[in-house]
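User: Hi! Is it possible to get a structure for several chains at once, not just one? Here's what I have:
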Amino acid sequence: MKNIITIFKKEFYRVMSDRRLIFTSILLPGLAIYVMYSFIGGALGNEIDDIEQHKMIVYTENMPTEVANYIYSQGYNPEYHIYVPANQEELEAEILAGDVDLLIRFSPTFEDDIDNLVVSGILLHYNPGEKYSEYTYYRIAETLNQYAEEIGIERYGDAYYSFSMSSEIIMDEDKAAGQGFAMLLPMLIIMFLFSGAMSIGPDSIAGEKERGTIATLLVTPTKRSEIAIGKILSLTVISMFSATSSFIGIMFSLPKLMASGSGSDLDVFIYSAGDIAILFSVLIATVLVIVGLISVLSAYAKTIKEATMLIMPFYFLSIVLGMSTMFSGEASSNMWVYIVPIYSSVNLIISILTFEISTTAYLLTVFSSLVYVTLFIYLLNKLFQSEKVMFSK
Amino acid sequence: MNTLEVKNIRKTFKLSKKQRKIEKTDSKLKVAVNDLSFTAFPGEIYGLLGPNGAGKTTCLRAISTLIRVDEGDIIVGGSSVVNDSFEVRSKIGFLTSELKLEDHFSPNYLYTYFSRLHNVDEETIEERKKVLFKRFGIEEFKEVKIGDLSTGMKQKISIAISLVHDPDFIIFDEPTNGLDVLTARSVTDYLVELKDSGKTVILSTHILSVVEKLCDRVGIIINGKMKISDTLENVKKTNSKNDLEEIFFDLVKEESLIGGGF
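Assistant: Yes, the chains can be modeled jointly so their relative placement is included. Here is the combined structure:
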C-alpha cells in the first residue's frame, strides 16, 4: 500500500509539475471542446439566419388571393411571379439553378372545387438540392396543409382536407450528390491530411533533435535550406500517401453511409478525371502548408511530445475551419478567403465537389499555399541555424 | 598550410532564472570559453584537457560550426568558421557522443548517406567504405540495424562515418569513452595512423594517460580559459616531478584560488 502511494505521488507530481502537460492533458481538451462546439453552434445559427432571411421567389398559377393572404398571415412574404405555361422549360431551368425557389400550380377551379366538395389538387415544383428552394417548399407546403385544415374546420366543423398536394422534384442529381460530399469531405480531408503529417513530422524533426541525430547531419557541408526542403518534400509525399489511402476509404464508404441514412444515393463516379486531378493538386498544396507548419513547430520543440503538444491547437483549429462550411456545403465567394491558409483549401475543395470552381480562387489558393510553404521553409532554415533551438535541452 | 588556429574565442550563454539559481549567480550570462587560443599542426595530435564543464565541448562545437563564437575566430586550413562555415564543415571530421546515428538504419546505408552529403563520388564511397569497415571490423555487421549493435560497435561506426570524406582535420571528443580496452586501443591506434598520414588531429579527453601516450601538444582548459598550451614535453617541464597529473591538479587549484569555484 505504501508503495502504491509512493508511485501514485510520483506519477501525479510528474504531470502536475509540468506546466505543458497540465495544459495539454487537462486544460486543452475542455478548451478545444468549448471552442469547437461554440463554433458549430455559431455556424449552424448563421446558416439558419441566412436561410430565413432569404427572400422566397415563388412562381404561381391560378393562386387565389385568399391563399396568398393566408400565407402572408403566417409570416411569409414571398416575391410572387405569374407562371406562364409557354415558359415552362425556362422556369424549370431556373429552379434547377436555384434562381427560383418554388412553383405552385393551382387548378383554375380551385375555389369552386372547395365549395363543391371536390378534392382539388395543388402541384408544387421545387429543387431539394438547393437549400433555399427546399426551405421554401417545406414552409409553403406546411402552410398550405394548415390552410386546408383550417377551412375544413371552418366550413364543415371537421379537419376535412379539401384539397390534395403533390410535388415534383426538379434536381440535378450530380450537383445534389456533390453537395452531399461537399458537406462532409472538406473537414475529413483536412483532418486526414493533418493527422497523416502529424504522425510523421514530429518524429522526423523533433525526434532527430531528441535522439541527437540531427547534429550529425548539421556537421556535414549541407545547406540548412537543403535539409529543410528535403525533409518537407519527403514528409509531403508520405502524408499524401496517407491522405490518399484515407481518401479512397472515404469515397468508397461514404455512399454506403449516406445511403443508409437518407435513402438518397451518392455516387462517387459523378466526378471526372479532371475534377479528381484538380482536387489532387489542391490536396498537394494543402499538404505542403500543413507539413511546413508541422515541421516548423517540430523544429522549435525540444521533444516529440512537445512538438505534438504545439501542433494540437493548430489541428483543432483546422478541424474547426473544415467544419465551418459543413452546414452550408457552399464555397465562399469572397476572394480574400482564398489566401487564408487551410480555410482556402476547405472552400476550394467544396467548389470542386459542387462543380462550381473558379479559376481565380484556384490560382489564389495554390499560389498563396506556395507562398506559405516558402515562408515555412525560410523559418525552418532559420531554426536549423539557431544553436539555441537546436541544442537546448 | 593545414593548421587549425583558434584565435581568442569567447562564447557566452544566456542563463535562465532556474539556471541562475543552480549556479548561484546573478549574472545573466555564463562565460563558457573566454579568450581561448591555441594552434594544432598537421602530423600532430593536439590534446585538449580539462575537467568536466571546463569548456572543451563548447570549444569543439565552435570548431565544428555547430555554434557561433561571440568574439574571435577559428581558422581551419585557411577557412574561417565565422565567414566560411560551409567550407570548414567539408574539411573536418567531427566525433562527439552528442552526434548520434539513427537506430533504424544499417551502417552500410548511413555510410553511403553521409558520404553523399559530403559530395564523395560513388566509386570512392565504395572503396573507402571497404577500407574503413575492414579496419574497424564493421564488415560483418554492415547490414544490421544500428539499434541492434553494441555500444562499442556504434562508436566504431560513428568514427568511420565521421571520416567518410577523408578530412584533413579530425576532431574527436572523448573517442574512447565507454569502450572496452581492445576497442579503445584500436581507436587510438587509428588516431596515430591518421597523424602519421599528415592529418591535423584534435583530441579532447579527461583521461591523462591517453594524452601522455598519444599527444604531441597539450592544452589545458580550466574554467573556460586556456591555462597552458605547448608541446607535451614543455608542459611537463613546468613541474619538477615531470608529471602531467600534478600539473593538472596544480592548475585546477590555482584557478579555484582565483575564484573559479571548483
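The first strand of chain A starts at residue 57 and ends at 61. The two ends of chain A are 36 Å apart (CA to CA).

User: Great, thank you!
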